[in-house]
Amino acid sequence: MWYFLFRFIALAVIVSLFIVCIFCIPWLRKKTRRTKVIAFILFLIILLIFLPYPYENFFFHFKTPEEAFAYSHFGAAIQTVSVEDTCAFVVYSSGGQSADPDVIEKGPYGWNINSPFSPRNGGSKHWSSTDTTGKSKTFFLNVVQSEQSRQLFIMIHRFDSVGNSHEIADIHDTLDSLFQIHTSDSYLSHIEYYYTVLDVDDVDDHYQIYVDGKPVDPFKDLYQKSEWSAIQ
Fold it and tell me: Is the predicted pLDDT of residue 67 greater than 90, yes or no?
């Protein structure tokens, strides 16, 4: 949350100075002063471009991934899945039923924040499936990859509308991974979240995820194998 607060204050200051400089230019008679003001405006634009960058990592670090997440995100952490001493994946909710994953990286001096606006290594897809009773189910897949370790976080969402039975989906993979589950209910829908962590080296061409007995092969659509091997 403090990440957004500090940048909101900085944005207000930058915009205010920018407006003042723009209005002052026509009143400046000397060319040298006008040039200095224009240079200062360009400097403000550069500051604005780099404002989302998590410069805090140069000055301080956090003792836990939960502290780093709370500083840089809105919403509440549902669960943190730490991977050795390199990264942690956080499942969080920004309100309502929705839950999303993100990765918190650890540096040599502690846990770092990341910019919520920066693109993550990963991808997503959705598909629908019909069971033996003819009921349609909607699934979403999110994959988040750590930038400094060879870890993938896999999250599968299962959506049910009101009136459908809410039996737990059967989700497993060829690595016998342990999928943890989080459920969310409202008067409109029922959502189940299944998630696990995989090592990139264990995900080969034969890897499969099975959802209700049907194979899903999302990785060929979301990644190139060369991108994985490039991460050291």
Answer: yes
